Amino acid sequence: MRLSRYFLPVLKENPAEAQIVSHRYMLRAGMIKQQAAGIYSWLPLGFRVLNRIQQIVHEEQVRAGHIPLLMPTLQPADLWRESGRYDAYGPEMLRFKDRHDREMLYGPTNEEMITDIFRAHVSSYKDLPLTLYHIQWKFRDETRPRFGVMRGREFLMKDGYNFDLTKEDALHAYNRHMVSYLRTYERMGLTAIPMRADSGPIGGDDTHEFLVLASTGESEVFYDSAVTDLKLGQRDIDYDDRAQVADVCKEFTTLYARTDETHDAGLFEAIPEERRKVGRGIEVGQIFYFGTKYSESMGAVVVTADGSRVPVEMGSHGIGVSRLLGAIIEASHDDKGIIWPEGVTPFPVGIVNLKQGDAATDSACAAIYKALIDKGLEPLYDDRDERAGAKFATMDLIGLPWRITVGPRGVAAGKVELTSRRTGESEEMSAEAAVARIAEIYAAHR
Amino acid sequence: MRLSRYFLPVLKENPAEAQIVSHRYMLRAGMIKQQAAGIYSWLPLGFRVLNRIQQIVHEEQVRAGHIPLLMPTLQPADLWRESGRYDAYGPEMLRFKDRHDREMLYGPTNEEMITDIFRAHVSSYKDLPLTLYHIQWKFRDETRPRFGVMRGREFLMKDGYNFDLTKEDALHAYNRHMVSYLRTYERMGLTAIPMRADSGPIGGDDTHEFLVLASTGESEVFYDSAVTDLKLGQRDIDYDDRAQVADVCKEFTTLYARTDETHDAGLFEAIPEERRKVGRGIEVGQIFYFGTKYSESMGAVVVTADGSRVPVEMGSHGIGVSRLLGAIIEASHDDKGIIWPEGVTPFPVGIVNLKQGDAATDSACAAIYKALIDKGLEPLYDDRDERAGAKFATMDLIGLPWRITVGPRGVAAGKVELTSRRTGESEEMSAEAAVARIAEIYAAHR
User: Fold this and answer.
1) Residues near A278 by Cβ (< 8 Å), separated by ≥ 6?
2) Is pTM beyond 0.95 here?
């Protein structure tokens, strides 16, 4: 993408309404625009990151054997009356009547609807196990929406639901979700720690939240510092291998890590003092096992091998897709702007032309641009007639992890400069070498 | 995808509520489930096609130089008061109040919001031309939703908006949209004819609708039969070349083709009688040039080269993404089921195992499955323990354009059968040849 043809409305000033760094940088980098309290437009740069995050979530869910579908944003109130939640849910639920006076709502979550889909189409244990998920806009009418996309009202969530014959099967689904979430967050460059959680209004017997450590987090967290060293890495997971999946879960949940809701001072004190940490965390996902809560009330039953009818065992599992942008920025920025991890960056690399209009420099930039596109790595090329300083400031603010700087002197010497946004370190090399290096870096993120 | 692990709830019976073939087949093929009048869940198979269609729309918009973003589903009423449409819009607009009693609506279209984004960030003619678009769920509270996704209430639409300095520039944007739409529909296997249209409540000076001929269409259409022979094909379009783009538009709009709203009996009678056709059509898109209608009322002005301030010239351009599934099926089916064009098929090919459990046959199927996946062509493999007839019926119903049939006798002779869903013709060949043929067929659709 050539910046001269793009829509990247960066702001020079810090917007007054933004209290936390991710909100400030998302506004300044032209990623979002508020349209009403807690309701945002995703401007082109923000939309690209949102898509990258969705893509990673989809890939890891499909890898775990889960099946994507898409439920609508609006739901009939009657479904929620069946589960008893229509009255139980507070004013966070946006309710209204359609032109025929039918009661509707904007879905804050989809347990009822997915159970409705299941009961309409599945009646035999032979069709189990089954895990369905979608990524769809939700609405929760927060009293005080704030922190940009971190606590919006209209937000994008991945929510998945498992249907199993036995509790043992459902707990395997729970474990599958935990492992797939660990991989999902790692691919986004995040350390998200699974912490035992409170079941809350959704109801559940077993539940973990995934928290990203950040000083602006809404939850107080207590943990053994060794938990932040755990990495799933590139290990090969067979999601059908119950023992392997359970072992990974055990590895990631044995060390102490809890939010204030489930904190146990006694257990915490047992951690060696130098590893005992108190901090704050941003919740970016949660997994629940809740058994037959919805299947019983809504009649989602299957016929078993012996002919009996049993309600299915269920769980629901969510990732806060739009809020992840905020969480990633909170975890990865400096005083110049965002530092995108390679997995989610809107463009893999930026090209800065130091002397737009100089034939040799323009042509060197165009060649690098084309070479990157040919490798499937679309760069953002700053081809504007601007000072170098302004171009660098924009690149630093929007946070592309790599920058190729091309100037007339370098071009004469057959050199460009490759700069890491994270370390600030630059290296001179030929244009071909820079393109090859970028391709090599991103090969690990495909 | 192995069918034994998929969620494909096909129905044996014709659903009573479906009046037209696309609605009937989408329900029978397990593509959608109604959740409320005109509100659907997209089950896994339907979701795959919806994604393919979105993908094609995105690719062709980006090719035309248009920039994707994403606006929210909900909008504040105040924006619509500025344009005067809050009161002008009828009961199709879903209106409600949030918990703080602020008036909101579920967006039926986005002229106001995109104009708001533009005026907040663009103030110079140097930032023009600019065309922004999104693909987002809309809501129109139809009195009588019907025909499945063809006239739903919650529907997915691509809507794009151009901002230009002069009327001439805006008409080039109009033409760019026309050409990009022609390519979009052709890639989906559709013949969509641009027809001069009435501007309707949105207001506009120049507008065309794109209609797909189908006996179930909502509009009566009058056209010169020669118009259906026009094809854009693989010709290379430079979207910056105004003359070339205008010539394509002229080529596709010179022959008579109008809906009943703009029909001119005199002009129609001038067509040679044998080419004079009356039929019905499904509207799958519309382009509008409307000048300064919104920019004037909402203050979207830019400073020109001579320092004066002028309202920008605009247009809006839509594609009915979710309704396209219905239109494609109306245009491409037989009495056994859907016949997907290669461009939008949910899976490029199906594999039917005639003797599940037979070691040699299972292993031949697994090898074909893997070979296709390695080529990036994920097949749907019917690995269920079912009769051949039931497997064929399912494949015919869901309409994958190609089927590879693998049985023990063929495997012994080193042969599989490759069958075209469209012609019903089969050909025997080696498994390797079948995989190569499929790869060759789809190379043209990437």
Assistant:
1) A220, A221, A222
2) yes
